[in-house]
Every structure is written in structure tokens, then in C-alpha cells.
Amino acid sequence: MKKKLLALVLTVAVAAAMVLAACGGGGTPSGSGSAAPQGGSSAGIVLKLATTLSKNEFGGQMVEYLKGKVEELSGGEMTIDPSYSGTEVGFGEELSFVGAGAYDMTLIGQAMYTNVLPLLNFPSQSLKGYEDAVNLMDTIAFKNEKTAPLVQADIEKNNVHMIGSLPGGSNAFITKTEYATLDEMKGLKLGIGMNQSAMEMLGFNVVTIFPNEYYDKLSRGVADAGYMSATALVSMSLQEVTPYFLTDGTYTAGNFITVNLDRWNSLTSEQQKILEDAVAATQQYSFDLANKADEEIAGTIEAANGKLNKLGSEDATRVQAVFFETGVADARVYAQNAGNSDDMEIILQEVANYVGLELPAK
Length: 362
Description:
The protein has 362 residues and is an alpha/beta fold. It has a domain at 16-168 and 252-295: Bacterial extracellular solute-binding protein, family 7 (D-Maltodextrin-Binding Protein, domain 2, 3-Layer(aba) Sandwich). It is built from 13 helices and nine strands. Strand 1, helix 2 and strand 2 form a beta-alpha-beta unit. Helix 4 (130-143) crosses helix 5.
């Protein structure tokens, strides 16, 4: 189990790096959000945001929209000053840097810190689209009266405050031959580093391959298929190697807009409300942008003489159920290692209630 968990943690980091286009390594921050005026008056409030996202990718576009919305709602008296592409923070450093006050804000993926934020790592696949995926995540983390206090306490131990999540993506299987169902793909050699137990339950023969190895190893036939965010796969030009994409019908959310807790508490209630409203508006905008991105990748795939298909509802329901079962098992291990298993059981039951699945017995 320890080896599987280590592989999961390492692979999540690699996969997230590919999705987020992390370009920077480690390093010392060259600026500090603490230099900005602290609360009191909204005039001159500058919130320094550091991220490994690039400005032009999906997450970077969300940051730019958030910045504009904050300026609009505050009448120009508040703004966000973003730093992109890992120029001031390396991948995996976001939580520690913002928690220490080196910067005011960042975006943190749900699965990036399984050992530090165990209660945030609950299964979160939705069958109903990006908006429902975000609502699931935000309901458990911020709104549900049973779960929100538990998750928030776990988050704030790291001296950060999370406001809301953004859509992740629609995951897809990629192959050189066209398939339409899980049964047709049964027995294929699937290259993947994370969710290996889930993929084995779905009938694949799993080979450990990291996303940055996909192009080379799928080209050489080391594996028959891959699995990852469809938009990320297209960004890596995998349609040139595996032109057939089959989305699994599930949707996720993951990147939390995160603020240093001391900085958050230094803001007035009106300034906090401006940030909350700006995040809510950014979420609404992100749903349209995510759906548009899905449409655009279909054109890119077709231009490479490929095809984008989607699993039927029965198979999609099966994928969600399997990911839920394995996600529950992983979440219980994270919580047990952190000594908060009772809290995690409350969270998992509420997730089960939300998605309409039965919580597996311990």
C-alpha cells in the first residue's frame, strides 16, 4: 500500500505539472505580498499572486478574469498582481510559500498535498458537467454544515484560506484504434501512473507511464492507451500519435483560489466580500470557457485525422463508481496517516450522499 501511495503522490505531481504547464523549478521568491498595503482602506490594495500556470492556458485565463473582476467590483481600489509560469514559485511550493506570507495568493490543486491537506482529498467525480463538479467540491469544502468546518480547519492549519474551486477537465482515453466502450478496450495495456487500481478494476492491464513519457512510449507501442485530461493531451500533441480520444463522461474540479490567512484576516469584510464575489463570477465564466475548450480540442483532433468520442452513460456511471470506490480507499489511508479518520468518514458519507452512491464499508 505504501508503494502505491508513493506512486500516486509522485504521479499526481507529474500529471498536475503537465496540466498546469509548470515551467519553474524551486527557488527563492523575488517579491513579497506583505509589501502591499494591509487592509484598513480598500485604496491601494494589491494582492500578489504567484503560480506555475502560464498566462495563456485555462487556469491563467481564469486568473486574468479574476483580476479584472476584482478591479471592477472594487472600483479600481483593489487588484491582483499575478506572476506566471513558475517565475517566482516552483511546482509544489505554492502552499508553503503562500502560507508563510511570501505571496498573498495562489491556486492549489486538490490532489497536490495529500499528506498536508488530507481532508481535502475526497473523491469528486461528477457526471453532470463542470458546474456540478465545482458545486460538489465547494459544497463539501465550504458549504455543508457537517463537512465545511472540518475541511476548513484542516486548510487553515497551514495558514491559508480557500475561497472556491475551478473546473478541472474532462478525462479521456487515447488510442491508435477507435473504441466506443469499456468492454471493447478490456485487456488493453494502459499507460498511467495514478488511479492504477481503478483502471485495473475497469479491465485494463496497467503499465506505469508518466504523462511526460506518453508521446515517446505510445509512439513505440510500450502501451496501447493513455488516460489524462483531454485538453492536456491535446496540448502535448498526442493526437499525432493516438488520434482517437474517448472521454470517460466524468468531470472534476480541483484548483482552489487560495489566500494567505493573515492577509485575508487583514482585509475588511467588504474587501473579503469583493474577493468572494469575484471568485463566484470567475467560476461562472470558467464553465463557458471549459465547454468552449472542449469544442476546440475536437476540431484539433479532427484536423489530425482523429476523432473525439464519449463513453455512453452506462460506462460513465461505471467509471464514476470505480473511481469513487478507489478514491474512498485512498482517502481513508490519507486520513488514517494524519490521525483524523473519524472526520474523513463524515466527509465521505456526505460526498456519497451528494453523488448518490453507497459508501463502501471500512
